[in-house]
Each structure stands twice: as structure tokens, then as C-alpha cells.
Amino acid sequence: MSKIWIFDLDDTLHDASSKIFPRINQSMTAYVSNKLNISLADAHQLRDKYWKVYGATLKGLIQNHGVDPQEFLLNTHDAEELSKFVKQSHALENTLKKLKGKKIVFTNAPLHYAMAVIKALRIQKYFSGIYSIESTNYNPKPSLYAFRKILKQLGKRPNQCVMVEDDLANLKTAHMIGMQTILVSKLNKKTAFVTKRISKIQYLTREV
């Protein structure tokens, strides 16, 4: 039975924390401030609240303010601008080339942004599908709904899949439903729901 490799995007396949995430966060806070006519400080506080309650700013905005999700995503994820900060990696490409089995991307990011990043990395030919926040009806990982929705679209069982992620909460859900899990992190985090841990994505083929 061939494996289905499910990859997270940001901070798994490329570095998003150093330059991309700060810009997205700034754009999200500015959007909330403008849309709801509140100060930047209040917008930041509201985002923090929605993150704790819903797991994402967008979910809170949809539920409580009737915000159009596509408008929000297009205003906060300038794909053309953000993709300029993506660094192409030959090591990543070689890893994906060597890895046997079907490969998909499963991200909480919007589709237009995910496609731009994957194109900038020049790895689009290695993936048979991109599943974004739109694919889960705007229900982000680590929600069980999001994982079940993706599995249904793939037509696969959890035990056929390997989740490769930098986020422990997402791996916890993946493990809970029966997926193998690989944590991409330089921190030595040992948990019962992580099958393997690698410090960099290019070390993946050493472990499988």
C-alpha cells in the first residue's frame, strides 16, 4: 500500500516565520481595524481572542461579523508580494523527488497564496493536489472536521497517510485519527503523537 504524504506548507516546506508571517499578521490586524472601525490595539486584542476561541482570526470574523472570507484572504495574503520572500531550495526539491508515493499540501493558508509559494519554490510538479482553507469550508487545522474533509476528498483512510508538519496541535489530530506523524522542528519535542522528528525537511528521506 503506497503512502500518501500530506505536507503542511508554511514553516514545513519553507521558512515563513522570519519574513512572511510578520507581514501577514500586520495585514490581518490592519484589515480588522479598518473593517470594524476599531483601533489597531483593539484589533490585535480581538484577533487574539478569536485565535483562542476559534483557532483562527477568520473563523471569528465570519461567525461574529459576517465578513466575506475571500475578501479577507485576498486583503491579508498578497501572494505576489509575499512570494518574493520565498527562498528556493535544491535540497527540498531533491527530497521530494526521492520520496515515493503521492504527495499533497494541506495548509490553513488560502489557495492563491499556497500556489504562489509552491511556484516560487519550484516544486509544483511534485504535488498532485493543494488543499487550502477554502477546501475545509474555512475550518482550519487542527479541527477534526478539516482532517476528515481532506480524507474524504482524497478518498483515503488515515492509516494510508503520513502528516508532515511543524505544528504539534495539528499532528495531535492527525495521530488521533490514525495517521503517521512527522514533526519538522529543531526543538527536541518528544510526544506520544509524534512518530518521528526531523530538524529539517531535507532529512525526511533519511527517516523513511
What do these coordinates show?
- The protein has 208 residues and is of the alpha/beta class.
- It has helices spanning 20-36, 40-54, 57-65, 69-76, 79-82, 90-98, 111-121, 144-154, 168-176, 204-207; strands at residues 4-7, 102-106, 129-131, 161-165, 180-184, 196-198.
- Strands 3-2-1-4-5-6 form a six-stranded parallel β-sheet, sandwiched between helices.
- Helix 2 crosses helix 3.
- The protein has two domains: 4-14 and 83-207, HAD superfamily/HAD-like (Rossmann fold, 3-Layer(aba) Sandwich); 20-78, DNA polymerase, domain 1 (Orthogonal Bundle).
- The two termini are 15 Å apart.
- It contains ten helices and six strands; from the N terminus they run βααααααβαβαβαββα.
- Helix 7 links the parallel strand 2 and strand 3.
- The model has no long low-confidence stretch (mean pLDDT 95).
Main attributes of the structure:
single chain, about 210 residues, alpha/beta, Rossmann fold, DNA polymerase, domain 1, 2 domains, 6-stranded parallel beta sheet, 10 helices, 6 strands, about 10% strand, globular
Q: For the record, what CATH class of the largest domain applies? A: Alpha Beta
Shape: globular
Main sheet specs: 6 strands, parallel
The helix fraction, in percent, is 40-55%
Instruction: Provide the low-confidence segments as ranges.
Output: none
Here the CATH topology of the largest domain equals: Rossmann fold
Number of domains: 2
Termini separation comes to 15 Å
Known CATH architecture of the largest domain: 3-Layer(aba) Sandwich
Total helical segments: 10
Number of strands: 6
Sheet with most strands: strand arrangement: 3-2-1-4-5-6
CATH superfamily of the largest domain: HAD superfamily/HAD-like
Could you say which structural class the secondary elements and strand pairing correspond to? alpha/beta
- Beta-strand portion reads 5-15%
Radius of gyration: 17 Å
Give the rounded overall mean pLDDT.
Answer: 95
Write the H/E string, N to C: EHHHHHHEHEHEHEEH
